[in-house]
User: Fold these one by one.
Assistant:
Number 1:
Amino acid sequence: MRPTKESGAILKKFVKLAKKLKKIPTVKEAVKYVASERQLYKHFDNFENLKALAIKHNTELTKFLIAKKTIKQPKVLLFDIETAPILGYVWQLWENNLGLNQIESDWHVLSWSAKWLGSPEKEVMYMDQRNARNIEDDSKILKGIWKLLDEADVVITQNGKSFDVKKLNARFVINGFNPPSSFKHDDTRSMAKKHFGFTSTKLEYMTDKLCTKYKKLKHTKFQGFYLWKECLNGNVEAWKEMEKYNKYDVLSLEELYTKLAPWGSTTNFNLYHDSEVNVCKCGSKKFKENEYVYTASGQYQRFTCVKCGHETRGRENLFSKEKRDSLRAGVTR
């Protein structure tokens, strides 16, 4: 990146704008008042290089940059629930269709575990029904998970779009709760089905193949359904195993998400902060330009995260107006 007369003029205008605004201009402001996005990238490779040079000309910008160094990230919640089974009367082992009058007791939430993305392992949250006077009254633990969902901008689950969220919504409305605040939802099972051909999309299989620190736990003392049965019977040791089992579901889910996220288009976390610095889902701020992305009507700069390989693209169509006008649309047959 060699300085030229044109780049010097752009830099001078950028510093002047920064002094006027008393802050570092955004890309949008720079394009509007300084130069086109194409000129900025032509002379400085990327917007970060332009800012770095501008800071050398104005110490006040350095102070502002330090103040903006910590970027507020969205509140991303990972969670998993465990539910009690429906108990009913049957006459045979196979092909049962229970009528409503055959149900002895309905399902309810037994426990939940949750964790904010990136928080330490010791901050995993958990609530269950072991000390409830009436184990079917899950209203107390529902309050806990409702509060977290209400606070979250994004939630991450394994099969939560089909199970966990809908099950919680059912218990919420039955217990008189209002809906929690809306949130974006990334589901690792949906991601796996869309982008991969795994033998199984179960958490047990995927964490066994992809995760190194946390894997979904196998049952130890209480095998399979026996764990749920003993929890319903008030077995303290069973509840201890359920707690560990539930927490590890969330810990392994977090590691699995970090493995799958770079491969697909998940929620854009940069929408949730006011900084112009792009931060990848893996936490890295380092991107490299990697040729271009083409749509039906445009060419865009492609950026690849240096740490995890996740791809994003710029917003400016790099085709000239003449090129855009010359393009013909395909005919759908």
Note: Residues 278-333 form one domain.
Number 2:
Amino acid sequence: MGVEAKVIVACENEAAATDHAAAAFTRLGELDAMFSDYRRDSELNQLCAAPSGVPHRVSADLFRVVELAQLVSQRSSGAFDISCGPLTSLWRTVRKSGLLASDNELADARARTGWRKIVLDRESQTITLAQPRMQLDLGGIAKGYAAADAVRVLVERGAPSCLVALAGDIAVGDPPPHPPTNLSTNTSAGSPPSEPGWRIAPGPDSGMAHAAGVLLLANASASTSGDSQQFVEIAGQRYAHIVDPQTGLGASRVRAATVVVPHDSRGRALCGATADAIATAFSLVNDTHAASLISAAPIAPAAASIRDLANKITPVLQVGDARLFRLDPPANPPPP
């Protein structure tokens, strides 16, 4: 899925931890082979290469992710849209060249997008793409799903105290028995014995900078979306790497959003995917729409925080369980 993966497992000995981590990485590899739009042989790209208008049977994992994505698209009025692959591809070219796409290029890409052009049949587990040359992009939902599903694997193997991070998407199991050490500076994680959770302190290169100061998590997923690291300036305008389906350009809002969803009976993976998708949508909608999206989310977030990146301290919107957030900014916040 184009990002670095990190797995932390608390075990009695190194050999057991290595075996458990290997199983988690194997699962992440399986999901990457399904969801990646970078791999020509991925299941996602096979679906997109299939004839339009013809039902295509897919794996249970891919169907679940697309089904959830469609629900978030509906409830976000299209702000979240996995059909915007053609726009994403065009925007990647723009970011490399530093030149905005022409009107004709944008029109062609827009003609091949639209979440309503994705038709699902749960009974047959098929997906139909109604428009020729469509390209789905699961970048705003799949990492949350994968991180949480890797945690499921670890818990089922008898390693419940664990953390899996894919860039700004983090999933955790039970709290660690003691503060882990020797962690990467990108995302520091630990917990004093008196605190019932993993302390997630976003680092300047984690993709979570400027969102929540510190998170305290157990058996939950947290996703952060924004342009604190991946952005480009063209003709004096700052654009995020996240494409706004309404404009076909990178989002121009300078903000970051963090969403926490507890793992429940609907499955860790779907909870992680929900956190990822809602955080992505928050980067694109206005504050009023963001507030309404909280109540309309397929799985209710426990907490959410949206911050204007020009103001690292005061949230634009903060809802839910404040105990999950330590909202003091990092001691050494990165520059805007």
Note: The chain has eight helices and 16 strands.
